[in-house]
Design a protein that fits this description.
alpha/beta, 33% helix, 233 residues, elongated, two-stranded antiparallel ribbon, binds carba-nicotinamide-adenine-dinucleotide, 6-stranded parallel beta sheet, Rossmann fold, 8 strands, SIR2/SIRT2 'Small Domain'
């Protein structure tokens, strides 16, 4: 933790890449931990264009459950520390796979939402924006009658170009990249850490096996580790 603090202080550009493990301590389950499975179904089979097209009932039930899981969830101290580090010039940007909006809620400003956001519901057919309430009520698109969906990137879809380009550029040119709370199973985001020439730090609950790919691996809770690093700054 002391080493990470030193690198943060020496670095001209530090980028943070987060995944679902950044939000579990706010009460939002991840996908790949044992407790993260939804009705024992692999999310990779539901969070798909195929499910949206062929089994809208299942797709809708899955995302309704994900909206319900967000109810009452607030950013935790780790999110606030990242927002504070941005204010203090210690980190440049946060690139995130999370769709929950908690980095923004904590006050981070330079955020690349690589997998979109649950909070931007739109019609799959005409693209027109709709409200979360309309989606949850399973209403058809008021404009064209098409299916409503959250503005997240489904398996099988391409990532938002601007967010991807921004994250790629900052990671390529960073001196330090902190990777926090991601299993690094989902392509193409799992390629981003390989793109930096800077120091690479991995902070994750299950971290075994990543020692060779990172300069430093810290196994444990994102919130507690960020708090400890912060105590050295
Ligand atoms: P994942 O594959 O579920 O991996 C999460 C990782 O975080 C696992 O390796 C866990 O060991 C680790 N972890 C869990 N809790 C903690 C903790 N408290 N501290 C540190 N590490 C922890 O999730 P990824 O983000 O790697 O996969 C990408 C998917 C998951 C994206 O498409 C996301 O949209 C999707 N997702 C997002 C959210 C969210 O927005 N909060 C929630 C669930 C899934």
């Amino acid at each position: 933790m002391e080493q990470v603090a030193k690198w943060l202080q020496q670095s001209k550009k530090t980028v943070v890449l987060t995944g679902a493990g950044m939000s579990t301590e706010s009460g939002i389950p991840d996908f790949r931990s044992k407790s993260g499975w939804w009705r024992n179904i692999d999310p990779a089979t539901v969070a798909t264009v195929e499910a949206l097209t062929n089994d809208y009932d299942l797709f809708h039930a899955f995302y309704s459950a994900r909206f319900a899981a967000l109810n009452g969830c607030e950013p935790h101290a780790g999110h606030s520390i990242l927002a504070d580090w941005e204010q203090r010039g210690l980190i440049a940007r946060v690139a995130t796979q999370n769709v929950d909006g908690l980095h923004k809620a904590a006050g981070s400003q330079n955020i690349d939402e690589l997998h979109g956001s649950l909070h931007r519901v739109r019609c799959q057919q005409c693209g027109k924006q709709a409200t979360t309430e309309q989606f949850l009520a399973k209403e058809p698109c008021p404009n064209c009658g098409g299916r409503l969906r959250p503005g997240i990137v489904l398996f099988g879809e391409t990532l938002p170009q601007n967010a991807w380009n921004q994250a790629l550029y900052t990671i390529e040119t960073a001196d330090v990249v902190l990777v926090i709370g991601t299993s690094l199973q989902v392509y193409p985001v799992n390629q981003l850490p390989k793109m930096t020439g800077g120091k690479l730090v991995y902070i994750n609950q299950e971290a075994a096996g990543y020692e060779k790919e990172f300069d430093l691996v810290i196994q444990g809770s994102a919130k507690e580790i960020l708090q400890q690093v912060n105590s050295y700054l």
